[in-house]
């Protein structure tokens, strides 16, 4: 089994960019967000439960989940957000563990998991890598990326643990202030560190 480095950070902190930089170095990436999309495809158990809970109104005309509507609901209602998390978390966790077990010929892999601390998943990793991003930068990115109001973006950020708490779980930290060159340097250094540390 390869060593598992859990990569986490607040919403819009740059997880995908950093995972991509590791991926370019040949490191396998297992992304909980991608798995989360896979497990709610039309006809899946999770998809059926979501439609049953929220009714057909939660669907687009093509039959897929209306993600923007679902996002509005869950970030304006803690009860609904917790319900959805309780449904999806065990399914995503099971699929993640399955994908990790399939990676046999690599020294380590990056496991991208947004709610690492919130869902108490850090215990499943050998090492925790946290992204340190200013909240102001997260907010600006989120508004632009998802084309949402600043108010909704703030609610999405506040629904997660604070940066201070997240950093308290970190074995390693990447500072993301929007400088791609700096990110690349930090990733390259960590990659070498992990290869040296995890050699069997």
Automatic annotation (TrEMBL):
ATP binds at residues 12-17. Keywords: ATP-binding, Coenzyme A biosynthesis, Cytoplasm, Kinase, Nucleotide-binding, Transferase. One of its GO terms (biological process) is coenzyme A biosynthetic process. SUPFAM superfamilies: P-loop containing nucleoside triphosphate hydrolases. The keyword Transferase applies. It is found in: Cytoplasm. Its EC number is 2.7.1.24. InterPro entries: Depp_CoAkinase, P-loop_NTPase. The keyword ATP-binding applies. It catalyses: 3'-dephospho-CoA + ATP = ADP + CoA + H(+). Pathway: Cofactor biosynthesis; coenzyme A biosynthesis; CoA from (R)-pantothenate: step 5/5. It comes from the Bacteria. GO terms for molecular function: ATP binding; dephospho-CoA kinase activity. GO terms for cellular component: cytoplasm. Catalyzes the phosphorylation of the 3'-hydroxyl group of dephosphocoenzyme A to form coenzyme A. HAMAP family: Dephospho_CoA_kinase. Belongs to the CoaE family. NCBIfam families: dephospho-CoA kinase. This is Dephospho-CoA kinase.
């Amino acid at each position: 089994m390869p060593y598992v480095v859990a990569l986490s950070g607040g919403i819009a902190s740059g997880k995908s960019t950093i995972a991509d930089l590791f991926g370019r170095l040949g490191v396998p990436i297992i992304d909980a967000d991608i798995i989360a999309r896979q497990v709610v495809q039309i006809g899946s158990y999770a998809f059926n439960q979501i439609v049953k809970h929220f009714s057909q109104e939660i669907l687009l005309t093509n039959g897929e989940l209306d993600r923007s509507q679902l996002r509005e609901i869950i970030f304006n209602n803690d009860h609904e957000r917790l319900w959805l998390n309780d449904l999806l978390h065990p399914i995503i966790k099971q699929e993640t563990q399955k994908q990790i077990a399939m990676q046999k010929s690599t020294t380590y892999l990056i496991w991208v998991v947004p709610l690492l601390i919130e869902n108490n998943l850090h215990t499943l990793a050998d090492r925790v890598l946290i992204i340190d991003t200013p909240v102001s930068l997260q907010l600006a990115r989120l508004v632009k990326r998802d084309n949402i109001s600043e108010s909704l973006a703030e609610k999405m950020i506040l629904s997660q643990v604070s940066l201070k708490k997240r950093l308290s779980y970190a074995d390693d930290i990447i500072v993301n202030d929007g400088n791609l060159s700096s990110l690349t340097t930090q990733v390259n250094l960590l990659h070498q560190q992990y290869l040296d540390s995890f050699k069997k």
